[in-house]
Design a protein that fits this description.
Length: 760
């Protein structure tokens, strides 16, 4: 049923490539690559290098360099991605603090660095030092009172607006592709789609700079998704330096898969989580070799970031925690409830965000990206400043919510009423009744949670770099911390209840509210992205909480089940569909009983298929056919009468071959006969020189019969990454099925608009 020789696709292509022929084998923008062809070309290239390596020492050294080039690219990606992530972290730290004040000794110091260098800082007032001045102290010499508060408030809003305006202007003018998270596009590119410039040098530069600006502006977004895009830009840049990758789109995608792993590695300080994220969430084709290389790239990136030490705590992340109490079986119930909350929030977020983004695309709103960013930033800054939990950066908020309350904590969340007779080690504080500070923190957290849920829906998808990991984790961490404090107080006041009696004695440290925040963060992130394995690994690498894997797994699985009950798509797949990218998701199942003949073109009533004949068309005929149609390629048949299939010729290669022949070969004119056979056809004596194009003919195109079930066809397209597949009956050509036909058919079967998958 399926053409047996297809695996050796375009075996003869290499003869043609031996000639100095520019641009052959490259693809047009917004086209899909032919994975089989790329794989075949790489095999031929490798065979050639191996046979040449036996000829001389120099060729042997060249073959060694070729073999090592993959590891060199990984090393370079890891070094650059780690360095950029470190610089971004340091810059964000400084610019976030700049909204509140400035360091007098050196203006480039953040608040924390400024007070480190001061000799007059005490432990109790470690956030107050004479060298750090708020804007009110600097401008009007007042630190307390209504006028000082209002001035600080205004300066906070002005800085936020300035950062956001700069970011959206840079994106708009220099690199429109630098907006958004980048992960939906990376997934589409890794599935074989070409988007030129998406991973270019300008995109890399502008995304890095604007990422610092938007995170510092206090908008409800993270830097983690965009860091994957930044790392993939690094991967694209370095792969263009080695011909092994620059001339083969399939090989380039192996490098990009590894770069995505390095991106997550530096975003979260989670090298193993990064490799699993690339495997589970982003990559389309992930051979074992790519797994090892991803591991190496993630390792180098994490090592580089650790050397820069952006947080000054010798950790790769801001929210490293160490809890001192185990968890108990009875706590699985609130953990699962947090999983349910995560799944519901994920569903709500995806539906509302997609509806808003669709509105932006279809109404006048989309014409004013700068105004939209300015308005959202203004609302965010105005609402965020009065509440201490929304004023601080989201990473610091998550860090505070994850933290266990030790004796040295100054946070409001740790304002418990202490027993004056207590003599216990410092790190093992027993459960205590909540003080005024905890109750204040609870209602402030509730307000912050409501605000974060609403504002994130409108922020994600604007024309600025915006990641979703950190805002999702913040939503979950706030909900989790509130649940944790509730369970802790319940256990303290009712320790004689049957559920607490076995494990919670008076004066013991039973419940860790920070753990609930961590589980809530995992649940909400899972609900939005539908990650499972990589999510749990990222979370425990992120926090160092290895013994809490079971609660994290319970929450992640529950949130996925709950979210999947309302719709199978995660946020990235939803954005891929919204933008109409031709992406065949491996996770989707095709269960309809249709046949290849129902999907192939031409349909009944449509004009016949445009084909080339093997030896009866002139150069002019072919040029006219190319001019009048916009197909990517043409089947080649014996003759119009017999319609027996011989092979398939790509449009781009036909154009290049004819152009090249006209320039270089004598006697090629418009009425020269073109032939795809080994021997030239018999021509009259005075006819012009014929043009042989057998070398650009793919003699083993993928074919199926007209009665092949579409389930099989969809599977073939997914697993082999085909661009098109020809439909035959007894060797006679009937029609063609392209990747877009398959996507249209799948959309139709799911009662969606079939034209919605066309990338515009």
């Amino acid at each position: 049923m399926v053409h047996g020789g297809a695996m050796s696709a375009s075996g003869n292509l290499m003869d043609f490539l031996d000639e100095p022929f520019p641009d052959v084998g490259t693809y047009e923008d917004f086209h899909t690559i032919d994975w089989l062809r790329e794989k075949s070309r790489d095999t031929d290239r490798h065979r050639k290098i191996t046979s040449k390596s036996k000829e001389s020492i120099w060729e042997f050294i060249k073959s060694l360099l070729d073999a090592w080039s993959g590891w060199v690219v990984m090393l370079l990606i890891g070094l650059l991605a780690g360095t950029l992530a470190g610089v971004i972290d340091l810059a964000v730290d400084w610019m976030t603090d700049l909204k509140e004040g400035v360091c007098l000794s050196a203006f480039w110091y953040s608040h924390e660095q400024c007070c480190w260098t001061s000799n007059e800082t005490t432990f109790e007032d470690r956030d107050k030092c004479p060298l750090w001045q708020k804007w009110s102290e600097l401008l009007v010499n007042q630190s307390e009172g209504a006028s000082a508060y209002i001035l600080n408030y205004l300066m906070y809003i002005l800085w936020a607006l300035l950062f956001a305006f700069l970011a959206v202007s840079l994106v708009r003018v220099f690199a429109p592709y630098a907006c958004g998270s980048g992960i939906p596009e990376i997934k589409t590119i890794l599935s074989g789609f070409i988007i030129r410039g998406y991973l270019g040098k300008w995109t890399l530069l502008i995304k890095t700079v604007t990422l610092v600006l938007v995170v510092s502006s206090g908008l409800s977004l993270g830097k983690e998704g965009p860091l994957v895009h930044v790392a993939c830009c690094c991967g694209n840049f370095f792969s263009s330096l080695f011909s092994k990758y620059s001339k083969n789109e399939g090989k380039r995608r192996e490098v990009l898969s590894a770069a995505a792993a390095a991106g997550v590695s530096v975003a979260f300080g989670a090298p193993i989580g990064g490799v699993l994220f690339s495997l589970e969430e982003v990559s389309y084709y992930f051979p074992l070799k790519t797994l090892w290389r991803s591991f190496f790239a993630a390792l180098v990136a994490a090592f580089t970031l650790r050397s820069i030490n952006p947080f000054g705590n010798s950790r790769l992340v801001l929210f490293y925690v160490e809890y001192h109490t185990p968890w108990y079986m009875a706590e699985l119930f609130p953990f699962i409830l947090l999983g349910v909350f995560g799944g519901l929030w994920g569903t709500l977020f995806i539906r509302c965000n997609i509806a808003w983004c669709r509105r932006r695309k279809t109404t006048k709103l989309g014409k004013y990206p700068v105004l939209e960013v300015i308005v959202v930033t203004a609302i965010t800054a105005i609402v965020a400043y009065p509440n201490p939990y929304t004023r601080q950066s989201t990473s610091e908020l998550i860090s505070e919510l994850f933290n266990d309350c030790g004796a040295l904590e100054s946070s409001q969340l740790c304002d418990y009423i202490n027993d004056p007779n207590m003599t216990r080690p410092v790190d093992d504080m027993p459960d205590r009744p909540a003080g005024v500070g905890v109750y204040t923190a609870m209602w402030q957290l509730a307000l912050a949670l409501g605000f974060k849920i609403v504002i994130t829906i409108f922020t994600f998808g604007m024309k600025i770099p915006s990641g979703l990991f950190i805002p999702s984790m913040a939503v979950g961490a706030m909900a989790g911390r509130m649940v944790g404090i509730g369970v802790e107080q319940l256990a303290y006041h009712h320790h004689d209840w049957i559920i607490f009696r076995n494990w919670c004695r008076p004066g013991a440290d039973c419940v860790t509210p920070g753990l609930y925040a961590m589980v809530g963060a995992a649940a909400c992130l899972g609900g939005v992205t539908r990650m499972t394995v990589s999510l749990v690994v990222i979370m425990f690498e992120l926090t160092g909480g290895l013994e809490y894997i079971v609660p994290l797994m319970a929450a992640a699985v529950t949130s996925k089940w709950v979210a999947d009950a309302f719709g199978k798509e995660g946020i990235y797949e939803a954005h891929i569909h919204l933008n109409g990218y031709p992406f065949l998701d491996v996770k989707d199942e095709f269960t309809h009983r249709t046949l290849a003949t129902d999907v192939m073109r031409p349909r009944r009533g449509e004009p016949p298929l445009s084909v080339l004949t093997q030896d009866s068309m002139t150069v002019e005929d072919v040029e006219t056919l190319i001019k009048e149609t916009d197909y990517n390629g043409f089947p080649v048949v014996v003759s119009r009468d017999s319609e027996r299939l011989i092979g398939f010729a790509q449009r781009r290669e036909l154009i290049l071959a004819i152009k090249n022949a006209r320039q270089r070969q004598e006697g090629i004119v418009s009425n020269s006969i073109m032939y795809f056979t080994e021997d030239p056809p018999e021509l009259p004596a005075n006819s012009p020189h014929p043009l042989k194009l057998r070398r650009i003919l793919n003699l083993s195109p993928f074919t199926v019969t007209d009665h092949t079930p579409m389930e099989t066809v969809v599977d073939i397209f997914r697993k082999l990454g085909l661009r098109q597949c020809l439909v035959t009956r007894s060797g006679r050509l009937l029609g063609i099925i392209t990747k877009k036909d398959v996507l249209r058919h799948m959309a139709q079967m799911a009662n969606q608009d079939p034209e919605s998958i066309m990338f515009n």
